[in-house]
Amino acid sequence: MTKGDAVDYVAIPATGFEILTPTNTAPVAKAKPISAETSIGLMYRVQVGAFSKPVAEDQFNEFTPVSAEKRSNGIFVYMAGYFVGNAKAFEAQKSIRKIGYSDAFVVAYCDGQRITLSEAKRLEETKACAPIQFNQISIQNNAPAPTDTTRIMVTELDYYKAIGAAPAFSVETKKGLFFTVQLGVYNRPVDKKTFKDMSPLITKRLPNGQIRYSTGVYVSIEEAFPKRDQAFEKGITDAFITAYYEGERISLTEAEALLRKDGTGVIEKTAVGIAKDVESRIEATKKLDNDIQEIVKNKMVKGISIQLISKNQYNEFPRDVLNRFNSHASFYYDINDKRIKSNLYSRIDDIPQVYFLRNEIDTTYITDQQRLDKAIKNDLRNVSFEISSTEMGGDMSDMLLRLNYRKEFVQEGESIEVILHDVPPTIAQDISDRLRTLKIRAEVVDPAD
User: What's CA 156's distance to the chain center, in Å?
Assistant: First the structure.
């Protein structure tokens, strides 16, 4: 506090809040002071208004106490009451709304810092931030109260709004299931240039106060692909498709399971796309499941495995395509025939659901004898070595990632046996020499032995 500043001492009603009647109007707070309270602890308040300038002395004279804080964007935010629990705060919110302040909403603070309601409830339940203790609260009065004010309607879901911020809407207003493209997470609202004018923008406020930005509202992953590609073209290379349901982000697997279970009735009504297409896809997925069951009955016998193989060949390491495939299951690039391949599967429970790759992959059935014949024909080797689980990091992980051969891991206690399949002899020897520099003994094995 600087010299010359006035300090008002506001007497707090025993309940933390009081609706005033014509006979008890307000010796309690004679002015609308501008600043934050000098309080320590967890408390809830009811935000009743936001203005471009401080309000007049007789504003909000229907209840007490009322004080304000000036935000960094120059907006004056006015709040009523002091509450140690959220239940009382929401009761006061209802009373204030009945008076006519229909946009009033509950806010929370811990040690003078504004926090989200979800975080406040967590702190209240765990007692990680002790409830505020007050008989009187000192408030620094920094500004006069001019009468020419401009009312700015601010609601609990307006957290993403600020001067110059990109137009957006909050995901909390969307209750149905939809797919979208996540663009990034930021500490404060951002401008249009940040996302190269992409629209529509969607925001989600996180418990730590950060804002998660996405773009587009779609009925399916397929409908969202062009928007993701647009983000890539604009230089937002870490954009990815995700899903929301009832205002919360869920995984794509959870979204697909929800569609299979409840049908298209769960899709957000404002989502872009044709729900009938989603119904067709759900039916196709069910058929694929049935086909796989039939495969298990007829073909998956001992000594036969299934492998998923890309239809296309790639002369150079297909990093982007491989990353996309690996977002659905575990794949590797086979340098021998220049295709992307999955692991070998011998159990139905292990086969990944890769509906979205259906036009890019073939399903092949491979017997143990076929694998052996291929190895003999091409004079291929297996490289086997053993490492401890603690050695999987650093140089070892980096080396394994760069080896474009099928890998098999067999764990025995603290040790892991690593087997690289179908490696040309000269490369097998080179791998063995590199492992020796890491003090790991490797064995090069002829599969026919």
Answer: 20
